[in-house]
Amino acid sequence: MESPGLPVKKPMGSLFLVGVPIGHPDDITIRALGILSRVDVIATEDPIATQELLSHHNLSVVLTSYGPTRIKEKVAVLINRLQQGLSVALVSDCGSPVISDPGSLLVAAAHKHAIPVCSIPGPSAVTAAITASGFSAEAFHFYGDIPAPTGSGKSRLAMALMHAEPTILFCQTQSCQAILETIAKAAPRRRIALACDLTLQNETVLKGTARRVSHLLKRIQTPHMVTLVVEGRKRITPAKTGRRRAQH
Fold this sequence. Notes:
This protein has 248 residues and is an alpha/beta fold. Helix content is 32%, strand content 21%. It has helices spanning 30-38, 47-56, 71-83, 103-112, 125-133, 152-160, 176-186, 210-217; strands at 15-18, 41-44, 63-65, 88-91, 117-120, 141-146, 167-171, 191-196, 204-209, 226-230, 234-236, 245-247. The strands form three sheets. It has a five-stranded parallel beta sheet with strand order 3-2-4-1-5, sandwiched between helices. It has a five-stranded mixed beta sheet with strand order 6-7-10-8-9, with helices on both faces. Helix 3 crosses helix 4 and helix 7 (176-186) runs antiparallel to helix 8 (210-217). The relative contact order is 0.14.
C-alpha cells in the first residue's frame, strides 16, 4: 500500500531502435509501424525523410531532430524524457539506426541509466548489397561511409583490398568515380559490385572490375544511394614452389 503524501515514481520509458526502409517506403515491418504509431516522440537523423515515411503510412507522431550537430545536448534531452516515462523511437534517414550514424551515443546513455532498449530490426543496405553481389557472404567486413579516396579514405580502401572476405562500404555519389579509379589502379583485376538505389524502381547492380563498373556507371542515371561491395582477395598456391601468392 502506498504511503500517503509520497509522490509516485513513474516507470521509465523505453528506447526503441526502429529499422526503416532503405528506399521503397513499403519495406517496413508491421511491428515497426506499430511501434512508430505508439511512441511519444521519434528522434530522427532526417526529419523531412521521416515525415515523408510517416505520411505515406498515415501516421502522425511528434518528431525531434537527432544529429548531426549538438549530439551530446540532444542525448541529454532524450534521456531526460525517457526518465520521465516517455517512450522514444530512434530512426535513421534510412535503414537501421546506429549503423553509420551517431545513434550509439544515445543507446550507450540509455544503458548507463538503466533505460530499457529494444531493437526493432528492418531493412539494411549492407545485407541487401552483399546478397545481390554474387560474392560469398559467409563472412564479410563492413567499413561504413567512405569519404573521397584521399587521406583516411584512401587508407580505408587499401585495407578493404587486403581482406580475403568481401568488404562493404557506403559511397557518396560525388566521390564514387574517384573511388572506382583508385581501386582500378590498386587492384585492376579485382571484381566489385556497385549496388545503386536498392529497392527503388531504378535499382541497378553493376558488376565487374572497377574500370568496367566505372564505364557502366556513366551510362545510367546518377544514383542517390550507392553501396560498394569489394570481392575478397584471392590467394593462389603455385604447384611447384608451394608458396602462397596474392592475386589482385
